[in-house]
Amino acid sequence: MLFGAMSEMTEARRLVSGRAFDEDARIEATVRPANFGDYIGQDRVKENLQIAVEAARNRGEALDHVLLYGPPGLGKTTLAQILAREMSSSIKISSGPLLEKKGDLTAVLTGLELRDFFFLDEIHRLQPALEEILYPAMEDFRVDLIIGQGPGARVHPYQLNRFTLVGATTRAGLVMAPLRSRFGIVHRLDFYTPDDLEKIIGRSAKILGITIDPEGAAEIARRSRGTPRVANRLLRRVRDFAEVRAEGHITLGVARESLKMLGVDEHGLDETDRNLMLTVIQKYAGGPVGLNTIAASLSEEEDAIEEIYEPYLMQLGLLDRTPRGRVATALAYKHFGMEEPRRQPGLF
Ligand code: ADP
User: Fold this and answer.
1) Which residues sit opposite 157 in a β-bridge?
2) How far is CA 242 from CA 186, 247, 285, in A?
């Protein structure tokens, strides 16, 4: 019984997380947009990148290095792949924590052809020693190879082909100035509007052969916390429900019923979001309360709270980050049907 309850809770947590899971990876390969035309929303970013691509293509040059930041699941990897495709180039993909030794990074860099792309996810987690290799590689397309060992070791500068680094991070604040300044193009991806998510759901449904009413798609969109990855995941869960309970067709009613069963409320909040907000409100009188305290009371990692839960709660206007800690807003009290306590003026 306890096991059942626990696994259900883990599942509910996962459901609205923007981070990718194994199951997502398989499906995403089929629904991931392959060109700008299919990439829905993020119009400002898209337009800027399209212009940069066209200019670079006309000049026959590699595209400037690009830094994309924003919460997980918003389409950073997808954009990198589209950029490479639009430039008729190949792309190599890696991530900060995957690159352990200097040699791992040098091997990728020296293997890049002219105008190739290197997508480096979670660039804020790259080790400092490896980050230093990136500086001359990005700026002068050079790596310093060390030949030999000990006192007899020699530095041998190696000229790389001109390539484009696309760095992605969920934590822009952790990308230090020397690295950041080497990117010519920097864009932040925002949460998607429900309209855009509805289009994304409609497109994915078509590709996956799911029949869905516009009202059903709109309902899933509203609860997808502005994140395409979550929208695609909820669509698959609702499809399961529809197949078992409603002859496979997703209507507004089917969407509502299944999302309720999955523990995702009308704003896309799940159990962990609710627990987080109620912790701040009930245990800490609305805050300010430190991130570490919240993490400890929820038995969650601080990273996950900062990266997945808080950005969306802040976007909804339920939570504020202040220098003294996290604070529940007046709207949060309203959302949970509670009375806001009188706070001392000037407290934050
Ligand atoms: P990130 O790298 O930011 O974590 P991804 O690029 O892997 O996010 O996107 C997650 C999934 O969401 C993709 O596989 C794709 O199916 C979908 N997706 C992301 N952005 C868009 C978009 N603009 N239009 C349609 N689908 C998208």
Assistant:
1) 144
2) 42, 6, 42
Question: Look-up: residue for tokens 């009202």?
Answer: 215
Q: Which two tokens stand for residue 102?
A: 């200097």
Q: 263 by DSSP, 3-state: which?
A: coil
Q: Is the CB of 187 under 6 A from ligand 1?
A: no
Dist CA 287 CA 324 (whole Å): 9
Query: Cβ(232) to ligand 1 under 6 A?
Result: yes
Could you list the mean pLDDT of each consecutive 10-residue stretch along the chain, which spans 348 residues?
39 68 78 96 97 97 97 96 97 95 94 98 95 96 90 92 97 88 96 97 96 97 95 96 93 96 91 93 94 93 88 94 94 91 61
> Does 311 contact ligand 1 (Cβ within 6 A)?
no
Q: Tokens 């067709």 label which residue?
A: 249
SS3 28: helix
- Is residue 203 within 8 Å of residue 158, measured between CB atoms? no
Three-class DSSP labels, 97-147: HHCCCHHHHHHHHHCCCCCCEEEEECHHHCCHHHHHHHHHHHHHCEEEEEE
Residue 334, helix vs strand vs coil: helix
Domains of the chain: 42-188 (3.40.50.300), 194-262 (1.10.8.60), 271-335 (1.10.10.10)
Ligand 1 atom at minimal distance to the Cα of residue 78: 6
| pLDDT for 65 | 98
Which H or E run contains 149?
Answer: none
How is residue 295 annotated by DSSP? H
